[in-house]
Amino acid sequence: MGLHKLRLAAAVPVTFSSRLFLKPFTNTLTLGLFSRHLQPRNKPLLVRAFSASAAVQDIPATQTSDSSVARPLWKAAIDFKWIRDNKEAVEINIRNRNSNANLEAVLQLYENMVNLQKEVERLREERNNVAKKMKGKLEPSERERLVEEGKNLKESLVTLEEDLVKLKDELQHVAQSIPNMTHPDVPVGGEDSSAIRQEVGSPREFSFPIKDHLQLGKDLDLIDFDSAAEVSGSKFFYLKNEAVLLEMALLNWTLSQVMKKGYTPLTTPEIVRSSIVEKCGFQPRGDNTQVYSIDGTDQCLIGTAEIPVGGIHMDSILLESALPLKYIAFSHCFRTEAGAAGAATKGLYRVHQFSKAEMFVICQPEDSESFHQELIQIEEDLFTSLGLHFKTLDMATADLGAPAYRKFDIEAWMPGLGRFGEISSASNCTDYQSRRLGIRYRPSEPPQTGPKKGKANLPATKFVHTLNATACAVPRMMVCLLENYQQEDGSVVIPEPLRPFMGGIELIKPKLK
Amino acid sequence: MGLHKLRLAAAVPVTFSSRLFLKPFTNTLTLGLFSRHLQPRNKPLLVRAFSASAAVQDIPATQTSDSSAARPLWKAAIDFKWIRDNKEAVEINIRNRNSNANLEAVLQLYENMVNLQKEVERLREERNNVAKKMKGKLEPSERERLVEEGKNLKESLVTLEEDLVKLKDELQHVAQSIPNMTHPDVPVGGEDSSAIRQEVGSPREFSFPIKDHLQLGKDLDLIDFDSAAEVSGSKFFYLKNEAVLLEMALLNWTLSQVMKKGYTPLTTPEIVRSSIVEKCGFQPRGDNTQVYSIDGTDQCLIGTAEIPVGGIHMDSILLESALPLKYIAFSHCFRTEAGAAGAATKGLYRVHQFSKAEMFVICQPEDSESFHQELIQIEEDLFTSLGLHFKTLDMATADLGAPAYRKFDIEAWMPGLGRFGEISSASNCTDYQSRRLGIRYRPSEPPQTGPKKGKANLPATKFVHTLNATACAVPRMMVCLLENYQQEDGSVVIPEPLRPFMGGIELIKPKHK
């Protein structure tokens, strides 16, 4: 998803609506399926998190009080059988990722669902048998008995089929909170456990008192937060003068570099349907949502281009020969930053609106790990070209959010802020998003199993893997460039690769007033 | 405001709430001010319109039923005295502009307000007199009489002061719909009356069957409306491949050209407070609003960068030496396009989200006409450089919307669509917006009147003039470029000025699949 991960509440309320269970359920049959109410766990779920601590947010219980919430508008193609057959691994994974997904509830609901499905099938067969019997010649009393039996069976079926629909909805709700599995090399633990993959450069030594980017932005007339606070609110800003050219140069240069690696450039809609946001693993609703919603519609503003790009191939079956699909998408991003008080919020570091170029890859499962390496390599190359001092982190399990199988963050040195700050993030989401977005491909070679007689020999479809990675999140790059390239006279040097993209400007000089 | 004007309902409900008049008003005094109820005119108001016909939208009467709607959150510094003293000219202007502003109601309310103000002042004086009298020695009966009189006066004052506040609010409501005055050279009449200021070039002759930009966009893999319809809704789009570079080149080139004329580049917030939208002359609420609102806040998305740029100097007094302020602002723009069904809606011509570079000038009143000429000249130069065939129109009175004193639109030839289409708009809003946004300046020379003894000789502040003009509305420029520069082999030539800004690409060729 890219830079500073949306801190999101759970995609599904944990307290699954026992309302459904309280409804008169099996009047005619005793299935014994609902021997106990599963205890709702009132702990927060982690879907997509910037940092684990920030993600821990309680979900108000009232969220589930509306019965309409219980009906999911779309379904993730979750592999329940696999989860059941790998219960222990899934349980450990949930624990390692500090997720509050309720595996026990999922398995119980799944078992209930399977049993209920069997029961429904049994009753259908029975009803068919009754119907078949009635075709022959019968004693009137026998016919009457069969009519009565058929009627009872039909009534039972209607009730059970309704229950089955509800149970499936319930299962979706609870199961959608199960996080992706984790790459075996990912360090287990919290933020501090993240492993350094690489460290590039060293902090620049300054022989003069340095300024932070806010001061530089003011002194060089590059950034205006004050007017934006009046016009829009806090954490909005205008870019001015050379900063506008620097933004354009950063984006142009980034696009040109990434296109050389075979990535297709895109611009995207910035208003999307809420369901797409959910399918990508973000939560567009709730008190602590990071997502701005449009009034009176089911649309919201994107927090990252990952969302509209992920949506391009939604509900489709791609040809194997079309893969990989590699995109570099430019968009503006909008985030409420709810609950970000106390976090590093100074200046451009955390803002409501920013420009970003985001890479997105759709590939075959067996290729996703190498594309993950490609993405992180592109990021490292870009930031090295700009002369930044940074380290690449293999993020620990508790810091992954729900969709990522593995995530590499890059943190760069920001001398004015006096610390490292996240400037990019590269995630391999394997089939987490594709199972929600419905993106499959059809392998060109037939599967290993022998051809069955009389059946079309088309290979079965598979879910693609998706990956996303920040190529350039403009405001944080500006923090790095302004703070690292400041000179004693208050000017800022433009890194060489960007100069051709900003009309040859080499230096941002203080303006004469 | 720039390209394809927001079609907007009135900023204020016309049916001003007679509720206020029905409240027991002058129990203690008979002012005779409200001798008759002014008949509400249930006709639509025109605030900012794309075309006169589209702007004619009925305002639902229910809008006024909420008493909170009657309290304006901000006040325009409308020069009521001037309106009263120029009643005939204002009346003719309202008629010429096809506005439904109710001048009679404004003048009546203003008179009521002035009279009520006088009455309040008279009562205050009387109360002061009573208080003064009571300081002396008095007969007990006389003192009692005075106490009683003072009490009555105080009660009357409280009532009248409340009424005055309400009357002022009412006056604001009704008066905000009065449009700007009109430049004497503007042709009087509807769309057909607009005068051609200049025509450049001629329609290109094609020796082959031509495609429209939609077909070209599909064949060259440049534009994806289908995926956007799924992800976001109709009238959204992805740009792809060379179209992304073309957008960037258009914006880069435009900025570089306009900066040469001394304009300061900006990027702006795209979420702003609703009040700023209103102050610029747009209507953020109502059934037919062009404005997307953010759920649960008082914020909305901008339809043009004119809004956040207009807001930069809101509520401030500028130095004369700081003027003119000339900006070229890049932003994404968002419009609901409510009620646009039936209008020219094909492909990129009318979309919900687009990129635009907008010029904005803040200057002294005496300079606004020459800056209007400068803006239209810049537009004409830009479009001439790109080799477009276009005509500049001096828009007729009924097509101006409320804020513009004069407006020049440029319409370019779009061979695929087979017609001219608006690609830019340059408006001189004189003091219409500055009286709402509160942007004044202090002349550096003292006014002509002789200095008064004992008083600080600071010249009085004046309202600035504001102007806005489209430099580049990307999607409509793309329509022009794709359709005009298509070749027989299906490729599209890039105009020379843009080539350096897109890595030297000269031709968009069909992709090999």
Radius of gyration of chain A: 27 Å
The multimeric state of the shown protein is homodimer
CATH superfamily of the largest domain in chain A: Bira Bifunctional Protein, Domain 2
Number of domains of chain A: 2
Mean pLDDT of chain A: 85
**CATH architectural label of the largest domain in chain A:** 2-Layer Sandwich
Instruction: Report the count of strand segments of chain A.
Output: 17
Q: What profile does the largest beta sheet of chain A have? A: 8 strands, mixed
Can you characterise this structure?
2 copies of one chain form a homodimer. Chain A has 513 residues and is an alpha+beta fold. Chain A has 2 domains: 80-176, Helix Hairpins (Orthogonal Bundle), CATH 1.10.287.40; 191-446 and 458-508, BirA Bifunctional Protein, domain 2 (2-Layer Sandwich), CATH 3.30.930.10. Helices cover 33% and strands 17% of the residues of chain A. Chain A has helices at 19-22, 52-55, 80-85, 87-96, 103-133, 140-175, 213-219, 225-231, 242-259, 274-279, 306-312, 368-385, 432-437, 474-484; strands at 195-200, 223-224, 238-240, 264-267, 271-273, 299-301, 316-319, 325-334, 353-363, 390-394, 406-414, 419-428, 439-442, 462-463, 465-473, 492-493, 507-508. Chain A is elongated and about 110 Å long. The first copy, chain A, starts with 18 loop residues before the first helix and ends in a 5-residue tail after the last strand. The model of chain A is unreliable at 1-47 and 49-69 (pLDDT under 50). Chains A and B meet through helix 8, strand 3, helix 9, strand 4 and strand 5 of A and helix 8, strand 3, helix 9, strand 4 and strand 5 of B. Chain B: Residues 106-177 form a coiled coil. Chain B: One of its GO terms (molecular function) is ATP binding. Chain B: Residues 90-162 form the Ubiquitin-like domain.
